[in-house]
Amino acid sequence: MSVFLARSSGVAIVMAFSAQAALADVTAKDVWSDWKSYMTATGYAVSGTETMSGDTLTISDISMAMPEMEEDTKGTFTLPDIKFVENGDGTVNIMLPAEMPMVFEMDGPDGVVSGTILYTHDGSPMLVSGDADEMTYDYASSLMNISLTNLDVPKEDIPADTFELSMALTNVVTKTIMTKTDVRTYNQTVTSETLGFDATFKEPEGDGNGSFKGAMQGVSFAGTTTVPDGLESPDMAALLRGGFTAEGTFDFASGNSAIAGQDGADTFALDSKTEGGTIAFDMGVDGLTYDVKQNRTETNITSSDLPFPLALSMAEAGFKLTMPVSKSDEEQDFALGVLLRDFDVPEMLWGMVDPAGTLPHDPATIAVDLAGKAKLAFDFFDPKAMAEVEAGEQAPGELNALTVKALEVSVAGAALTGTGDFTFNNNDLESFDGMPAPAGEANLKLVGANSLLDKLISMGLVSDSDAMGARMMMGMLAVPGDGDDTLTSKIEVTEDGQIKANGQRIK
Fold first, then answer.
1. Secondary structure element (H or E) that encloses residue 470, with its range
2. CA neighbours closer than 13 Å in the CB half-sphere of residue 10
3. What is the rounded average pLDDT of the residues 40-52?
């Protein structure tokens, strides 16, 4: 169901953001034909009744059958009439209804799930200009809204107001340039004054409810998509092998959100605001990359389970993922990065564990930056192959190398930093209990650990015996470094399975 909803919601966004950039040519009929070709190339089967009257082509009874997502699962959705009006000057206006309900159905083993995605706007036309090889689409609307209505789930009696989901944009301006050679390339920009979202849920039988609302200001997007033509099997794995690529960057200047929930007497609420951020993505046969960054964020939490409200803040948060998506016998790159910079908790919370102010109350930071090489033994976007991996019938692949480009953990006056570089022998699964045998070294630096232990002892949070055990462990693995209360450690793993700490063998 989730894949179907993602695809059907994607069509609504296609309409809303002009990603149907294939809707272009010098005549109305060619525009419609080109749009069908685009949708067919991405896996849809499109049909509709064509009626030409004067300079206007009306397409009615539009049906779009989605590509098979899972075994014994089929999906379709239908659209209301769309008009293509020839302006007489070599341009075409695409007229979408001011209220455009798109009805979807997914027929699977558990029955038919159906609903409506309602797209509304101010009725402005989309202007198509250019020629058959390069067409430009310009569209502007004071208001656009996408909402989910009339959700019907098999064997479930769901009241109409149980679940509501909507997204609204104001003062939207989009431009899409479609270039058609041996592939279709779309260069697109979108700006919007605000982007708001609103989701609510009510428990059908009970008094539980929840909501997630928020808005972003100063929204912009720029991206490029390349779509191959003429594929016999236009699933995502085949599209990638055929040359499909997509990359883009989404920016916003500021944002705010609110999450609330209630279950009987239990309540929870979270409000946050941020000074903006960026979401970038890049996908192709060579891999998939996400790079998410968010500037200063302030969060307030209240709950019936908490004795007082919490106010948290963070200067910067980030997440980066690079992963292979295509089966290959060759090594491919992967990467993972997590950043929580200057995470601060309120003094009231510090006061519960450190009322005397013994510990430094400086903001904490966690930063990890990993990279490596791996072989993927299946196509990530192939549903059958993924099912085999989940069932244990197919090995996912091999880990060949891992580099710790940066490690930083700092809290309460202590800080751990380090780097590392390892390779892995997938033919040796015995030396390390089923894990491919590593070989390489890590270099670590720990500052302030002994001072932190002393303070924890004075606070009664750590016993003398526990602290002694920790110091003995640090003495085995580390040596004094430059500066006060500084330890360094070089951990080596040799190809014959030995582990050494600062040159001393410990395994």
1. helix 464-477
2. 11
3. 87
At 418, list the tokens: 């380090």
Check whether 6 has a pLDDT greater than 70: no
Residue 24 has pLDDT above 50, yes or no: no
| Rounded Cα gap, residues 193 and 252, in angstroms | 10
pLDDT value at residue 228:
86
Amino acid in position 249: T
CA distance 370 to 428: 23
CA dist 251 and 208 (Å) reads 35
Q: Could you tell me which residues come within 8 angstroms of residue 294 by beta carbon, excluding any fewer than 6 positions away?
A: 274, 276, 277, 316, 317, 318
Q: Which of 272, 155, 268 minimizes the C-alpha distance to 208? A: 268
Residue 503 burial (C-beta neighbours within 10 Å; 0-12, 13-18, 19+): exposed
Q: Are 429 and 435 in contact (CB under 8 A)?
A: yes
Q: Would you list the DSSP string of 434-475?
A: TBPEEEEEEEEEEESHHHHHHHHHHTTSS-HHHHHHHHHHHH
Three-class DSSP labels, 285-299: CCEEEEEEEECCEEE
Q: Is 9 left (phi over 0), alpha (psi -120 to 50) or beta?
A: alpha
Judge contact between 43 and 64, C-beta under 8 A.
no
Q: Do 251 and 220 meet the contact criterion of CB atoms below 8 Å apart? A: yes
Contact assessment for residue 119 and residue 100, using Cβ atoms and an 8 Å cutoff: yes
Stated pTM of the model? 0.84
Q: Which H or E run includes 343?
A: strand 332-344
User: Model confidence over 341-390: pLDDT tens digits?
Assistant: 999 988 888 888 888 889 999 999 999 999 999 999 999 988 888 888 88
Do residues 86 and 28 make contact, with C-beta atoms less than 8 angstroms apart? yes
> Is the confidence at residue 233, as pLDDT, over 70?
no
d(CA 315, CA 335): 23
3-state secondary structure (DSSP) of residue 39: helix
Neighbour-count burial of 265, counting CB atoms closer than 10 A to its CB (0-12 exposed, 13-18 middle, 19+ buried):
exposed
Domain boundaries, the chain: 307-412, 427-507
Q: How would you class 119 by CB atoms within 10 Å of its CB: exposed for 0-12, middle for 13-18, buried for 19 or more? A: buried
